[in-house]
Amino acid sequence: MKRIGILCVGNDSPGINAAIRSAVVKSLDLNIEIIGIKDGFNGLLNDELDVLLRPNVSNILHQGGTILGTSLFIPEGEKLKKVKEKFEQYGLTSLILLGGRLAAKAALNLMKENIPSIIIPATIDNDLSFTDFSIGFFTAVEQVKKALDILHSTAEAHHRVMIVETMGKPSGWIATIGGLAGGADYIITSVENFDLKKVIEIIKKRYEGKKRFSLIVVESGVPIPENIKEECGCTTTNNSAEIIGKYIEKNLKDELGIEWRYTNLGYLQRGGSPTAMDRIIATQMAAHSIEMVKSGKNYHAVGVKGFSITEIPYSETIINYRPVDYYLKELTKLFY
């Protein structure tokens, strides 16, 4: 009998539980034993493993987070050799890694020690080069859209500029798609150089017309030119979104009386019940990964192209960033 170990590597994302559930159900259907490894590779090293059966994954489809826990730890050197020892000790035939770029790095390390594995992409950033979509992205975008819908009314009531900070650096996917869906008036990401003077012009034009408010989406950690920081009197303690807000206020408050407010969505983008799409792609990819193990295929990353499942052999390219699609980024400019 084949025995698979399943674990999470890196940050959590909504839909991981749906993938775990699918992997367990498919494994049992194919007469494969599946072992849940708690808290990433730490759980394997600390002997925190349990056989997973249907009762263990009942009623978790809708739950955010991960029932297995996760860790940012990636084994290297002596720790990697210890992982191999544990892999052999427990009679595992393959590992399934749920995660983003950290999981991809871990998979490449495992391959060097001839430890078979398969990656299922799970990251809200949606920045993996080998798949169109990753588990958790759709839920994160939905949270950004909901936040913009809510902030729209208070921004309009007080005639304010709302700065909304998202995760996703440096790929730009969450800010771009969430901003488009939520009707943002301007979207700033790390994908391209942005012009704050243009932002000022757009806001000013809106205030001089009937739209006396603006919603600006800013990807966390976008680089700000030094001259802008100096002009606003900002230091390293100020994050990018705050600097942009101060710049807007400095240039428009005296002329138009514009005030700004700042909202960092932070971990709200990671939490909550996964959307339908995240549940579907998680279920598809996890079931397919079990079929791959059954057929003896390892050292591959599972992905999706549209609704089709893909298999990508491991190479150094699986850790590459994938920036937001150029057309989607250009589409945002139609609404400026």
Textual characterization of the structure:
With 336 residues, the protein is an alpha/beta fold. It contains twelve helices and eleven strands. Helix 1 (16-29) packs parallel to helix 11 (276-294), helix 8 (196-208) packs across helix 10 and helix 9 packs across helix 10. The protein starts with a strand and ends with a helix. The mean pLDDT is 94.
Defining key terms:
single chain; alpha/beta; Rossmann fold; 2 domains; identical protein binding; glycolysis; fructose-6-phosphate binding; 6-phosphofructokinase activity
Q: How far apart, in Å, are the first and last alpha carbons?
A: 59 Å
Give the overall pLDDT as a whole number. Answer: 94
Spans of at least 5 consecutive residues whose pLDDT stays below 50 are none
β-sheet strand percentage? 15-25%
Rounded to an integer in angstroms, the radius of gyration calculated over CA atoms is 22 Å
Read across the widest sheet, the strand sequence of neighbours is: 3-2-1-4-5-10-11
What's the number of extended β-strand segments? Answer: 11
List the helices and strands and how they pair.
Layout (H helix, E strand, L loop, with lengths): L2 E7 L6 H14 L3 E5 L3 H5 L3 E3 L2 H4 L19 H13 L4 E6 L1 H12 L4 E5 L15 H22 L2 E6 L6 H9 L4 E3 L7 H13 L5 E6 L6 H7 L7 H17 L3 E5 L11 H19 L5 E6 L2 E6 L12 H7 L4
Parallel strand pairs: 1-2, 1-4, 4-5, 5-10, 6-8, 6-9, 7-8
Antiparallel strand pairs: 2-3, 10-11
